[in-house]
């Protein structure tokens, strides 16, 4: 199931009529050559039309990149550039857009070879604002062909996320669990982001599940599960039901995606799920997430949205975890202090019942859900995928319409430490620099719920640009401030 945008970036060079058009054309050719040499030619298209201060040229370029199947745009200022026609191109292109400009190449060619794109970028940004056009502009948008090629490469995850959100449907099942008001999802901001949502009852899902009993595809899915679990297959008796549920979800997606290309699911996973379905859905959630179909727990709609963003940005599986518990002091002293450059307050444990893909675990076993089994028969709580999360770099993040209905986000880079958790579930020992202060002055202060999405690797830079592009106010994008930089609400007297 394809659940990821395929990117094709159209590069259009522009030229002011009092500058040599040849300068923009030759610089565009050098840029495309540099990009293809480093990143290949699968996702890049060179528009042969150079816009020279002409609305007619703009229309020609627009039609050309549309015909080429481009879903993202790079406006390349090879010289000063025509501020009206270049911004009209951005206005009429339906997709994410980027502006970047050419640097002067040589000190001995500053007469006929000077393009002044450094100056033209100022006017481009002014005109974008005049027309209320969103565009991605790199931190320093002036560069050589090679440097601009790298900037375009950094634009790719931003573009994928914007495209995905504009064609996303979130499918939810059931209301949030009792007392989980933190999973409340104000709908207005979803629509503001271009996201559609389909809300269903648990009964609808249960009916569909029962109709899949005896589905001829179940044995093949069971075999896949057995191969994935290997020696960790401790509950083989539950695999048939889990396979039935997986097929139910996949068929539901195909029958209900409608006109949207991409889907994420916010699932109800307790308390009635166990007694009615006879298992917990965690392992199935992990499998679909690994296949690029994010599924959040506890009907966390903004959690599912965050997972989808992380998936298309990282082009990898993402998990959703509770920011769960502190690391005990004795465990910190024995396993972390002096071995890793983190204070005790920098560390915490991220956990969920069993939803993390097996590929992201150091080991995995099919088990039962211990917390639920404290009040339910153990046999109906089977289906978790348990194991310690594999060590490595991570990005903890979330996009949320919070209790006051403001669109907010946070991003924090850190790592999963190679420390045994001594606990249960899909769980890891996390370390984020200055986590204690971030926890208090971003997560608590800004009313974020307990779930955070986890992308594997360092993706903070791309996520920050995504959140800016889709309209999160920059003052509402929280991150872990370095030591010595005070949060607005932080008491200056320690």
Q: What does the main sheet amount to?
A: 6 strands, parallel
Percent in helix: 25-40%
Poorly predicted sequence stretches spanning 5 or more consecutive residues: none
SSE class: alpha/beta
CATH architecture of the largest domain: 3-Layer(aba) Sandwich
| Backbone shape | globular
Q: Please give the CATH class of the largest domain.
A: Alpha Beta
**CATH superfamily grouping of the largest domain:** L-fucose Isomerase, Chain A, domain 2
Distance between the termini: 53 Å
Query: How many separate structural domains?
Result: 2
What's the number of extended β-strand segments? 19
Radius of gyration: 25 Å
User: What is the beta-strand fraction?
Assistant: 15-25%
CATH topology assignment of the largest domain:
L-fucose Isomerase, Chain A, domain 2
Taking all residues together, what is the mean pLDDT? 93
| Structure annotation, total helices | 16
Give a quick precis of the structure.
By secondary structure, this protein is of the alpha/beta class. It contains 16 helices and 19 strands. Strands 1, 2, 3, 4, 5 and 6 form a 6-stranded parallel sheet that branches. Strands 11-12-17-16-15-18 form a 6-stranded antiparallel β-barrel, surrounded by 4 helices.
Layout of secondary structure:
Layout: E1 9-15, H1 21-39, E2 44-46, E3 51-52, H2 55-67, E4 72-77, H3 83-92, E5 97-102, H4 117-130, E6 142-143, H5 145-165, E7 168-173, H6 188-192, E8 196-200, H7 202-211, H8 218-229, H9 239-256, E9 262-266, H10 272-277, H11 282-290, E10 295-296, H12 301-314, E11 318-325, H13 329-335, E12 347-352, E13 365-368, H14 370-373, E14 382-388, E15 392-401, E16 407-416, E17 426-431, H15 435-444, E18 451-456, H16 460-469, E19 477-479
Parallel strand pairs: 1-2, 1-3, 1-4, 4-5, 5-6, 7-8, 7-9, 9-10, 14-17, 16-19
Antiparallel strand pairs: 11-12, 11-18, 12-17, 13-14, 15-16, 15-18, 16-17
């Amino acid at each position: 199931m394809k659940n990821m945008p395929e990117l094709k970036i159209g590069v259009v060079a522009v030229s002011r009529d009092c500058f040599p058009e040849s300068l923009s054309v030759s610089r565009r050719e050098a840029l495309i050559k540099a990009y293809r040499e480093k990143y290949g030619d699968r996702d890049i298209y060179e528009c042969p039309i150079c816009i020279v201060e002409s609305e007619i040229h703009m229309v020609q370029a627009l039609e050309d990149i549309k015909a080429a199947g481009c879903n993202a745009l790079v406006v390349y200022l090879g010289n000063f550039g025509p501020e009206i026609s270049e911004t009209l191109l951005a206005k009429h292109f339906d997709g994410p857009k980027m502006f970047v400009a050419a640097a002067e190449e040589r000190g001995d060619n500053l007469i006929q070879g000077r393009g002044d794109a450094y100056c033209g970028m100022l006017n481009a940004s002014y005109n974008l604002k005049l027309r209320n056009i969103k565009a991605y502009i790199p931190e320093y948008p002036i560069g050589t062909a090679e440097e601009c090629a790298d900037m375009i490469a950094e634009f790719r995850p931003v573009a994928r996320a914007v495209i995905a959100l504009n064609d996303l449907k979130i499918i939810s099942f059931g209301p949030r669990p009792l007392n989980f008001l933190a999973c409340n999802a104000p709908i207005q901001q979803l629509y503001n982001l271009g996201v559609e949502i389909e809300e269903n009852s648990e009964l609808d899902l249960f009916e569909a599940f029962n109709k899949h009993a005896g589905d001829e595809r179940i044995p093949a899915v069971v075999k896949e599960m057995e191969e994935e679990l290997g020696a960790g297959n401790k509950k083989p008796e539950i695999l048939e039901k889990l396979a039935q549920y997986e097929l139910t979800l996949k068929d539901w997606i195909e029958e209900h995606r409608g006109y949207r290309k991409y889907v994420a699911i916010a699932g109800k996973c307790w308390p009635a799920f166990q007694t009615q379905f006879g298992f917990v859905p965690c392992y199935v959630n992990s499998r679909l997430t690994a296949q690029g179909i994010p599924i959040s727990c506890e009907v966390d709609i903004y959690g599912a949205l965050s997972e989808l963003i992380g998936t298309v940005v990282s082009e990898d599986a993402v998990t959703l975890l509770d920011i769960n518990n502190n690391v005990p002091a004795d465990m910190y002293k024995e396993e972390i202090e002096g071995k890793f450059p983190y204070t005790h307050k920098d560390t915490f444990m991220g956990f969920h019942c069993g939803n993390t893909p097996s590929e992201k675990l150091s080991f995995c076993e099919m088990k039962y859900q211990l917390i639920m089994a404290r009040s339910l028969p153990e046999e109906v709580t089977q289906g978790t995928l348990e194991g310690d999360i594999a060590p490595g770099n991570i990005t903890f993040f979330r996009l949320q319409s919070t209790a006051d209905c403001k669109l907010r986000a946070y991003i924090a880079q850190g790592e999963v430490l190679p420390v045994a958790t001594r606990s249960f579930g899909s769980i890891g020992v996390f370390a984020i620099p200055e986590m204690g202060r971030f926890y208090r002055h971003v997560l608590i202060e800004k009313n974020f719920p307990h779930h955070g999405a986890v992308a594997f690797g360092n993706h903070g830079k791309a996520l920050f640009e995504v959140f800016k592009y889709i309209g999160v106010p920059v003052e509402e994008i929280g991150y872990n401030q370095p030591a010595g930089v005070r949060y607005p609400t932080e008491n200056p007297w320690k």
